[in-house]
Amino acid sequence: MHKGKAFMCISPLPKEMFSVIKGVKLNLVFFSLCKLN
């Protein structure tokens, strides 16, 4: 965990990619919930 955080602090690219992946995952989760309801 600490290694990943240090790497993200050094390079801005992985941080942005992490945000994008997080957003996509959240969207998929909400979409699944809406489909279930």
TrEMBL record:
This is RCG57122. It comes from Rattus norvegicus.
